[in-house]
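explain this chain.
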Amino acid sequence: MMLNSDQTELDLPPAHSESESVFSDCGRAGGAEDAGAVGLCAQSRVSEPGDGVKKDLQHLSREERRRRRRATAKYRTAHATRERIRVEAFNMAFAELRKLLPTLPPDKKLSKIEILRLAICYISYLNHVLDV
């Protein structure tokens, strides 16, 4: 509760008597009137899920919000899946290129850099053959 500049805490009516605890209504089992008090107390403490998170994220910079979103397990799993698909496509492209390059023996294992260098040489050779 906010106080005006000319108002003090002593001017405010007490919410509970000094002998009562703030939570005394919440834990007490009793009759119908107590059940209503328990319901009110429980309702006053319940908030929508995510309300606190939204309020916490509003003051953060755009980059910090992005960093926190990327730190979630769901995001990491999705990112790992996308990365796995990308790497598989990349490796398949190298395998297709490898099949087009002549080497002795034909099934010789080549690294990716060797495949690229061999492809450059083979393209130069084919250009030379076409020019002659």
Observations:
- Residues 73-100 form the longest helix (28 residues).
- The chain has a mean pLDDT of 74.
- The chain is about 65% helix and 0% strand.
- The radius of gyration is 35 Å.
